[in-house]
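User: For a benchmark we're assembling, each entry needs the component sequences followed by a predicted structure for the full assembly. Here are entry 17's components. Please fill in the structure.
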Amino acid sequence: MRAFIDIYFQQFKTSLAATLQYRASLAIWLIGHVLEPLVFLIVWSSVSNSSGGSVGGFTTRGFAAYFILLMLVNHITYTWIMYEFEYRIRNGTLSFALLKPIHPIHSDIADNIASKLITLPFILVIAGILALAFHPVISPSLWSLALVIPALLLALLIRFLIEWTLAQAAFWTTRVSAINQTYFVLLLFLSGQLAPLALYPAWIQSVAVILPFRWMISFPLELMLGQLTPTQALTGLVIQVAWVMVSYGLFRLVWQAGIRIYSAVGA
Amino acid sequence: MPAFAIQIRDLRKVYIVSERESGVRSALQSFIHRRNKEIPAVDCISFDLTPGEVVGFIGPNGAGKTTTLKMLSGLLHPTAGEASVLGFIPWKREKGFLRQITLVMGQRNQLIWDIPSADSFELNRAIYRIPAVDYQRMLHELTELLDLGPLLHKPVRNLSLGERMKCEIAAALLHRPSVVFLDEPTIGLDVTMQRRIRSFIADYNQRFGATVLLTSHYMADVEALCRRVIVIHHGKLLFDGELAKLVQKFTTHKIIVVELGDCQADLSKYGEVVACADGHFTLRVLKEKTAEITGRLLADLPVIDLLVEDPAIEEVIERVFAQKEL
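Assistant: Structure for entry 17:
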């Protein structure tokens, strides 16, 4: 355990140092992360304003709250492994990682945390500014807010494991961008990034319960907004735990098969 | 300690490559029906290395050297055959195995590009669980041997190729591996740096008794470091033995350098005149005729000096690879 803490600490230091080297790309990345929810926020606010101040139970200020908090949740659960994995295979960095007596996922976990610690203050400041501009309102109960932390952690875990698993498609094909594209479109629709899931037709909402996307982003958001009953909240957490287990199992399976392919065709 | 550090038996690696001719029609054909071709990169090779041995692994590009090293370091699964490194089966990639080996690839880098090597070293210390005392001692030794002092705190991207290679090698050896695979460690380096790396490898081998398997295109590396060489070509083992024996076995000719003072004389009746410069003739003669021709040269001509030598190793090797069957 101590050895692991040591590894994480060192990995953390290197990740911080490497991330801080690129201020410009960090800034561009931040702008991207702010712009998307901002656009949706403006669109939905004007839709709401033009239809008498509310759409499907969301008021204009409710939309503001939704998209500002969405920005935070998305930021916390975000990963970039799907963009990177194929490159690692192609340029041989994966081979070096495989020579080390530790699974490569650990460096990604540390990387992810380090980069988020650096960027989180900026996102919080931006969220503050947006709040001043759009006057969001939320009315969560205390128990609901207390559940946000575990829900967020579970959401991050699910998203991390599923995206790490999907990224490994690069073991089988060099054209991962099609897979990535499909995934990101599904994520956009079914995680609540495009619009609150409550606004979708009932059948899409029931599909969203079965699929993992809602549990990666929308669910902690719903807790923050105070939209769930205690039963719904607890059921949600149970489903999240189940998804963590499923995605961990998938990650292990795909990794074993992928490494077999990788070491067969030429590492 | 096992009798062999590395032991491989009938190791074979076949790559399956899909092939097609150029053009739209064949593109369509191959879309429907892939034609695959099997390329044996390593074809049933066997050899053993005893602990502490430094062996040169040579062969032209595409001979299967890197594929073999990758199998031995656990990155590649062989198609057939067996291998044991320090008693482990490499491609199982057990942690106990990975902690005791290293692979340095001259063409690739493991150091993190944007940060100083010292930080990457610390990370390796943690990953390999090197006790703090050992780490400090090893870092100190490596810094001294490779003269890393001024390089450790510069971002890797600001280092020259040679400086980076020194740091790469240090990073790969911090955990004091007892088996070291070096794939072209001196590629692209200038002569001084090559010599530096070479003497370092020799030092490391002596100090820690590590087993070293080294590939290189520079015969100077191999001559300086390895008494034994293994030659492969088209995935097949051509020769395994002492470097000196390789030269003997594959040399059909000797080189005679005769100093006559000028280049006027015609020496073609004695042997093939390779060159003449500053009054020194270089002749290539059949090995078994060397004594006779030397005698005739001394008797017939006003010889100032005469020298009989073996052809350069590069030349011998080139000849080995040029011959298909041996």
